[in-house]
Design brief:
Length: about 325
């Protein structure tokens, strides 16, 4: 392949030519970037001053196209400036209308924007809303949790939630169906000491609903557990015909675990064992199973001995 050899003066002229070409291109770019344009930016819409007596739901997406007037530099850097992609819409007019005109709020919206990033219009320029009667209700908080403990440790008493109620507001037909509000899942592993944490409540799924507060405090008392054994008398129930019934044995032994702090105070007064005579009369049972109808929540049952009782009915 032939190699073109240029003289020194030819190389100088060629260098000057490409330099001029580059400078001309840069001048053209600068001229184009200095011109003013109108361009669309996908803009996130947030709301302020919602109506207090009406529950609302937006009938369109939470973004609109904002038609912005600016030069080429603004257009070039608009994708990097996230603050210019948000607008706040005042909903005060929804007290007596079901729509908001964005163009009527242009002055207030542009007052919070840069002078070289002024919005000239919106697409769509009208936001429509669906309304329903609004209700407010207090419902109990329901803790969702999965906790594993180190050996012999466990929950020693009732879990305390502060506050234990949450206030929900929104459409009456939705609020009336809500009976409790769940927290996010609290997951803890190998716990050995009492727990005191803040847990967020599950968020609302509808845009026209709200909850307060957003989180609750949770106190979980944790202690070491040990086994304890008690003897309980068994009470016969549902002896509606007043049969002369003798059960054997008359007492059962229950084995359960209890925290060390409650070990001494936990006695027979916290428990009640019964045997149901209807199981013989209606179902022909030959033995009556023992059932604990009172058992403290801070204890864990290990076994009942015996689990079934013999009985004799005297005519």
């Amino acid at each position: 392949m032939a190699i073109i050899k240029l003289s020194k003066s030819e190389r100088r002229r060629l260098s000057v030519f490409f330099t001029c070409l580059v400078l001309a291109f840069l001048a053209w770019v600068l001229t184009m970037l200095s011109n003013r344009y109108e361009y669309a930016i996908k803009t996130l819409v947030s709301f302020t001053n919602p109506p207090l007596k009406r529950s609302f739901r937006s009938l369109q997406s939470d973004t609109v196209d904002a038609i912005v007037q600016g030069n080429g530099w603004n257009l070039l850097f608009s994708k990097m400036n996230m603050d210019d992609k948000k607008i706040v819409v005042d909903l005060k007019s929804l007290d007596n209308k079901n729509y908001v005109l964005l163009n009527s709020q242009l002055k207030a919206i542009n007052a919070k924007r840069r002078l070289n990033q002024q919005i000239v219009s919106f697409n769509p320029d009208t936001l429509y809303f669906d309304f329903s009667s609004r209700a407010v209700k207090r419902v109990p908080v329901q803790l969702q949790y999965h906790i594993t403990f180190k050996q012999q440790q466990g929950i020693a008493d009732n879990i305390v939630i502060k506050p234990d109620y949450v206030t929900v507001s929104g459409p009456a037909e939705v609020i009336n169906k809500i009976t409790a509000w769940k927290t996010d899942s609290l997951t803890l592993n190998d716990v050995e000491d009492s727990v005191n944490v803040n847990v967020r409540l599950q968020g609302v799924k509808e845009s026209n609903m709200s909850i307060y507060p957003k989180s609750v405090g949770v106190e979980i008392p944790v202690d070491e557990f040990t086994e304890k054994t008690l003897e309980l008398p068994v009470k016969l129930i549902n002896n509606k015909s007043y049969y002369n019934v003798k059960i054997f044995p008359q007492k059962v032994k229950i084995i359960f675990t209890v925290s060390l702090n409650k070990y001494a105070a936990t006695n027979e007064r916290f428990f009640e064992a019964v045997a149901d005579l209807d199981l013989w009369k209606d179902h022909g049972y030959k033995q009556l199973p023992v059932k604990l109808i009172r058992f403290p929540p801070f204890c864990k049952l290990v076994s009942i001995q015996p689990q079934n009782l013999d009985f004799i009915i005297k005519e």
